[in-house]
């Protein structure tokens, strides 16, 4: 492992600790932490299954520490994921900054993904999202970049566009997205973990139901990844049920 790879988790953790220094200065901030627990039939991210097509349980925590700034964490069961070196879980740690400029909602984020039960699988990424809401509808344009890391065989850029709309008179939200994953390949075997077959497109639509603290959803996702690289990357339906506390 190169020295930069050994230092990567420490660097991302250090960034989170620096963000947490804002807490004393914002002791009177009244934001409440939120906890979400969810069960899903698969863990699909950018059209790829992280759980080898198996059901998962997920828990997420968001702690606001200042207006527009929060620290976030999530854990998802993977049970020996082949995509992530036999990992039993994925743990996502990060910070999110949100600013409202006129009708635009601008978001910056940093994330580090850990994989308990597997070695040399962790990697970090940063992202930016610009969202515009008009009545019950909204549009998001986003870009997320993982700098060159040996655990993912190079670097990775993911750009996407998404739209959503609340169906009038119902607790239902209809959404859709299209995304593109590209990157520089230094190790083809490791790069295939997040970009099987090379650069690819993914797309999907979802229908979500929200009622109080409960939510449920059904989503369809697919990619243009061709066989034989399309294992757990083809068309599928994913159902989920969640509770936010």
Tell me about this structure:
Keywords: Signal. InterPro entries: CHP02001. This is TorF family putative porin. With 245 residues, the protein is mostly beta strands. It has a single domain, classed as monomeric porin ompg (Porin), CATH 2.40.160.40. The chain has two helices and 14 strands, in the order H-E-E-E-E-E-E-E-E-E-E-E-H-E-E-E. A hairpin with a 4-residue loop joins strand 9 and strand 10. The longest helix has 18 residues. The termini are far apart.
**Gross geometry:** globular
CATH topology: Porin
The main β sheet shows up as: 12 strands, antiparallel, barrel
Number of domains: 1
- State the helical fraction: under 10%
**CATH architecture assignment:** Beta Barrel
Mean pLDDT: 90
Integer-rounded radius of gyration: 18 Å
What is the CATH superfamily classification?
monomeric porin ompg
What's the β-strand tally?
Answer: 14
Strand order, main sheet: write it out: 1-4-5-6-7-8-9-10-11-12-13-14
Intertermini distance: 41 Å
Low-confidence stretches: 1-28
* Relative strand content: over 45%
Sequence of secondary-structure elements: HEEEEEEEEEEEHEEE
Give short descriptive properties of this protein:
single chain, 245 residues, mainly beta, Porin, two-stranded antiparallel ribbon, 14 strands, disordered N terminus
Please describe the topology of this protein.
Elements: H1 3-20, E1 34-40, E2 44-45, E3 48-49, E4 56-66, E5 69-81, E6 87-101, E7 104-114, E8 123-134, E9 137-149, E10 154-166, E11 172-182, H2 188-191, E12 200-211, E13 214-223, E14 236-244
Antiparallel strand pairs: 1-4, 1-14, 2-3, 4-5, 5-6, 6-7, 7-8, 8-9, 9-10, 10-11, 11-12, 12-13, 13-14
Signal peptide: 1-27
Keywords: Signal
Protein name: TorF family putative porin
């Amino acid at each position: 492992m190169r020295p930069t790879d050994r230092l990567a988790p420490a660097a991302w953790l250090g960034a989170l600790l620096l963000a947490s220094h804002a807490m004393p200065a914002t002791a009177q901030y009244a934001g409440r932490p939120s906890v979400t627990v969810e069960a899903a039939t698969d863990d699909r991210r950018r059209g790829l299954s992280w759980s080898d097509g198996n059901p998962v349980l997920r828990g997420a925590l968001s702690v606001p520490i200042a207006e527009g700034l929060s620290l976030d964490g999530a854990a998802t069961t993977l049970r020996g994921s082949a995509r992530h070196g036999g990992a039993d879980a994925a743990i996502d740690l990060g910070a999110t900054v949100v600013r409202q400029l006129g009708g635009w909602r601008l978001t910056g984020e940093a994330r580090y993904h850990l994989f308990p039960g597997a070695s040399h699988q962790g990697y970090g990424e940063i992202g930016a999202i610009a969202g515009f809401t008009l009545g019950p509808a909204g549009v998001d344009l986003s870009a997320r970049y993982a700098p060159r890391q040996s655990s993912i065989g190079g670097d990775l850029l993911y750009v996407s566009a998404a739209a959503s709309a609340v169906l009038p008179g119902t607790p239902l939200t209809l959404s859709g997205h299209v995304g593109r994953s590209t990157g520089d390949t230094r190790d083809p075997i490791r790069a295939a973990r997040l970009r099987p077959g090379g650069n690819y497109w993914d797309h999907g639509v979802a229908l979500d139901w929200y009622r109080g603290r409960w939510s449920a959803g059904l989503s369809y996702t697919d990619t243009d990844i061709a066989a034989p690289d399309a294992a757990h990357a083809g068309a599928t339906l994913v159902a989920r049920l969640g509770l936010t506390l």
